[in-house]
Amino acid sequence: MEAVLRHHAQQAGMDAEFDSAGTESYHVGDPPDARSQKVAARRGYTLAHLRARKVRVPDDFLHFDLILAADETHLQWLRTYCPKEHQNKLRLFLNDRALPDPYYDEIEAFEGVLDAVEGAAGHWLKAMGATKG
Fold it and tell me: 2-132 has which fold?
């Protein structure tokens, strides 16, 4: 999500900050899945510089204006740890449904996830009120 949003914001000349983090620490410090990198590269996104990190509580909730979760499980975790005054920043990335986790699937599933992320990117850039920079 981070790389796609950043790419589209830059293409639109928008000034916005993006970051990504997980709710678990399994892969902290690791780059994205090689299949994600391969699929993303075919569409012009670079993921090689990204490294997994865990959400910083409460810092991330204080710093970011919008925090997007991949699915209801992650959203619930965020709700649990987010200070009450920042709960309004939390949303599902696909609004009404979960972003599928392609980890145990073939590379085609990664293509489908990227399709969904690209489809939602414009909506979120508009919602974030990114400004021309």
Answer: Rossmann fold (3.40.50)
